[in-house]
């Protein structure tokens, strides 16, 4: 039986004692898993094993504790939800961490996988990305991942490509390199405009490009169709011999709100076209120095047919 967030939610609901009692989850796994309530309101997932884990840092959302069970001196590792408004994502985290570590062949390996997966989730929660990415975010990330693949292929510089991916860090443009910047827009094939989401996004004196990715949902059997997880896996393969680049890439994915959940494998997408526009001195855009100081922020739309003169051939 696959453990899902819905299954765990039902298990918590079935518990009538909410003052420290726990219910064991019926799952074939190297570790023993339980759900319950640490207090009347705080849902908790805990595991029991003979091996003590290394110390794990709590996050803003999940309190992690270690202790010895009094009855048999076995090791208990618990994950306690601190904010009830994150109930749904906590259930998803619990189901994911159980399934992620289930593939281990022994208790020690399973515990290592639990710790590794928690750290990935912790980065996500610290960034306050508290739900699945919506469709717009998924397509936006996919466009940037496809650009990373192309950039690595054309430049041959793997680490610099990942270092230049600065959008997840809050930069105004998605990619900034020594001599050029890129802003990536993922839109449907039929779309005729793009949204510039801030006054600063195109307001730079350096040379840059607006890269428009035409990405639509696709049937899984379509040649060239790719899921979000597929795109991440392809880049992982390119980074496998460069640990610094691999770790940096996944840190940035966490900042974006991504973790390799199975939900991101279900939907396939197809990129049918890439259009690149030179953003130079003549390109139509809003500039801070020409906007009244009373205007703090704005976003605007650009007509793509009207940008024909800046389209790169």
What count of helical segments does DSSP give? 8
Structural class: alpha+beta
- Uncertain stretches: none
| Sheet with most strands: strand arrangement | 1-2-3-5-4
**Shape annotation:** elongated
Order of helices and strands: HEEEEEHHHHEEEEHHHEE
Mean pLDDT: 90
* Major sheet attributes: 5 strands, antiparallel
Binned, the helix content reads 25-40%
Report the count of strand segments. 11
Radius of gyration: 23 Å
Terminal-residue CA separation:
54 Å
Percent strand equals: 15-25%
Q: Can you put this structure into words, describing what you see?
A:
Helices cover 33% and strands 22% of the residues. The protein has eight helices and eleven strands. Helix 1 packs across helix 2 (87-102). The termini are far apart. The model has no long low-confidence stretch (mean pLDDT 90).
Write the layout of secondary structure elements.
Blueprint: H1 5-14, E1 22-24, E2 32-37, E3 43-49, E4 62-68, E5 75-81, H2 87-102, H3 107-126, H4 135-155, H5 158-164, E6 175-176, E7 181-187, E8 193-196, E9 208-218, H6 228-239, H7 243-256, H8 263-266, E10 268-279, E11 300-303
Parallel strand pairs: 7-9
Antiparallel strand pairs: 1-2, 2-3, 3-5, 4-5, 6-7, 8-11, 9-10
Helix pairs in contact: 1-2, 2-3, 3-7, 4-6, 5-7
Question: What are the key terms here?
Answer:
11 strands; 313 residues; 4-stranded mixed β-sheet; alpha+beta; single chain
Short description:
With 313 residues, the chain is α+β, with helices and mostly antiparallel strands.
């Amino acid at each position: 039986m696959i453990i899902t967030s819905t299954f765990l939610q039902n298990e918590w609901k079935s518990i009538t004692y909410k003052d420290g009692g726990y219910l064991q989850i019926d799952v074939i796994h190297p570790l023993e898993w339980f759900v319950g309530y640490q207090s009347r309101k705080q849902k908790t997932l805990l595991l029991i094993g003979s091996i003590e884990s290394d110390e794990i840092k709590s996050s803003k959302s999940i309190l992690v504790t270690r202790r010895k069970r009094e009855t048999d001196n076995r090791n208990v590792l618990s994950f306690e939800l601190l904010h009830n408004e994150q109930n749904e994502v906590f259930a998803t985290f619990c189901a994911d961490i159980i399934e992620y570590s289930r593939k281990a062949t022994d208790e020690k390996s399973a515990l290592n996988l639990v710790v590794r997966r928690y750290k990935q989730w912790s980065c996500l929660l610290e960034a306050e990305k508290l739900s699945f990415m919506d469709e717009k975010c998924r397509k936006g990330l996919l466009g940037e991942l496809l650009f990373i693949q192309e950039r690595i292929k054309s430049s041959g510089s793997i680490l610099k490509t990942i270092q230049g991916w600065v959008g997840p860090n809050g930069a105004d443009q998605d990619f900034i390199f020594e001599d050029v910047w890129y802003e990536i827009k993922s839109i449907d094939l039929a779309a005729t405009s793009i949204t510039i989401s801030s006054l600063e996004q195109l307001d730079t004196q350096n040379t840059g490009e607006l890269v428009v990715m035409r990405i639509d949902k696709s049937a899984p059997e379509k040649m060239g169709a790719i899921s979000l997880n597929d795109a991440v896996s392809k880049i992982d393969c390119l980074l496998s011999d460069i640990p610094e680049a691999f770790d940096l890439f996944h840190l940035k994915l966490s900042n974006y709100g991504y973790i390799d959940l199975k939900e991101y494998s279900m939907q396939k997408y197809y990129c049918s076209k890439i259009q690149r526009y030179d953003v130079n001195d003549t390109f139509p855009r809003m500039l801070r120095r020409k906007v009244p100081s009373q205007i703090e922020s704005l976003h605007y739309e650009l007509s793509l047919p009207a940008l024909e003169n800046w389209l790169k051939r």
